[in-house]
Design brief:
Order of helices and strands: EHHEHHEHEEHEEHEHHEHEHHHHH
CATH superfamily of the largest domain: Divalent-metal-dependent TIM barrel enzymes
CATH architecture of the largest domain: Alpha-Beta Barrel
Shape: globular
CATH topology of the largest domain: TIM Barrel
Number of helices: 15
Helix content: 40-55%
Strand order of the largest sheet: 8-6-4-3-2-1-10-9
Structural class: alpha/beta
CATH class of the largest domain: Alpha Beta
């Protein structure tokens, strides 16, 4: 086995909607045939993938009878058993049907909100049946284009009400399910509620059971508006709220592109992978990306392999950085280790008095250089294979 060959210990996972994406876009129809969910599992298993995730409607057609549903689940579970794969995450589609055009949990119509909660309860039960421990909430229609139409404080109250109710449902049923909110700033709505990781983290603290709810940040969603995904993930980890993560690639200022992981901004991807590998995060490395529209057949599975190889290559580079003596010396010159040192410690009257009595020399402090250009260049050379 080579260093770039994935296997289940890497905890890589893909959504049914990722490799199963048919290549349609707002300007053209599908360019690839539909793939059967059980066949997707078998193909991914052959590539060394650990897990698969799904929307409720990805697996069970909304109009399926109970017997049809059970037959689909049985066939899907057989593929999981045959490959040794797991269902790493489940979620619910509350964005495709016209009923949700004004929102799901935040629709102005109470009956739509009740429908959304009922559909989510069924999706949670499907996830539990398949062994998923995480239920992701992407509010694809939770937003507005007309500010007058949807008072944001009322919308947040309805969002909170839905999540509190669903936490109660999970607790009442004795499920071990945890929830992960997936922020996104816009698209398909003009402005979406809980647009960034920071918004979601603040909102979680207002819930009745905040310990049950974390975040599922996606690279494309923070990047599309020019934010650092690396920083967003670090904040989620520091808060103990990184329950799941969606890996892909994105260019700033564009629509949600969902490119193959590593296809854009290798520097950001490099530090992100290093963070995940060094922080103790033990959840799925989930690729929420899709093949280019021009791909068919073998190209779909080359896309999946590429996501994993890029991650493993960057993980290898991150481990090399920790052992590179020149880079370690450049980190010292930049003063990087000093950021981990406490500044003043806990407050006390004596500590405050001592600090106020200290004579500082701002001019001397301003003379210090931090040698960031050299440090950055060394990292660039590492990524370019020059070190």
């Amino acid at each position: 086995m080579t260093a770039l060959e994935p296997d289940p210990r890497h905890r890589f996972s893909f959504g049914l909607w990722t490799v199963g994406n048919r290549g349609a876009d707002p300007f053209g129809g599908p360019t690839r045939p539909a793939l059967d969910p059980a066949e997707i599992v078998r193909q991914l298993g052959a590539l060394g993938v650990w897990g698969v995730s799904l929307h409720d409607d990805d697996l069970i057609p909304p109009d399926a009878t109970r017997s049809e549903r059970d037959a689909i689940v049985t066939r899907f579970r057989r593929a999981l058993d045959d490959t040794g794969m797991v269902v790493s995450m489940a979620t619910q589609n509350l964005f495709s049907h016209p009923a949700f055009k004004d929102g799901a949990f935040t629709s102005n119509t109470p009956e739509v909100r009740r429908l959304a909660i009922a559909k989510t309860m069924r999706a949670i039960e499907l996830g539990v049946e398949l062994g998923a421990e995480i239920q992701v909430f992407w509010g694809g229609r939770e937003g507005t284009e007309v500010l007058a139409a949807k008072p944001p404080m009322d919308a947040l109250r309805r969002y909170r009400e839905a999540l509190d109710f669903l936490c109660g449902f999970v607790r009442d049923r004795g499920y071990a399910t945890r929830f992960a909110l997936e922020p996104k700033p816009n698209e398909p709505r003009g402005d979406m509620f809980l647009p960034t990781v920071g918004h979601a983290l603040a909102f979680i603290q207002t819930l009745e059971h905040p310990e049950m709810v974390g975040v599922n940040p996606e690279a494309a969603h923070e990047t599309m508006v020019g934010l650092s995904f690396y920083h967003a993930v670090a904040q989620a980890i520091e808060a103990g709220k990184l329950f799941h993560i969606d890996l892909n690639a994105q260019r700033i200022g564009r629509y949600d592109q969902d490119f193959r992981f590593g296809a854009q901004d290798l520097m950001e991807a490099f530090f992100l992978v290093g963070l995940l590998e060094e922080s103790g995060y033990d959840g799925p490395r989930h690729f929420d990306a899709r093949p280019y529209r021009v791909e068919r057949g073998r190209g779909v599975w080359e896309f999946a392999t590429g996501c994993m190889r890029s991650y493993l290559a960057l993980a290898d580079k991150a481990s090399r950085m920790r052992e590179d003596t020149e880079i370690l010396a450049a980190l010292e010159a930049a003063g990087t280790p000093g950021l981990a040192e406490p500044t003043v410690g806990p407050y006390s009257r004596a500590a405050a008095d001592t600090l106020l009595a200290t004579r500082f020399d701002p001019d001397a402090l301003g003379e210090r250089g931090y040698h960031n250009d050299r440090l950055d260049q060394l990292v660039v050379e590492l990524l370019l294979g020059l070190r």
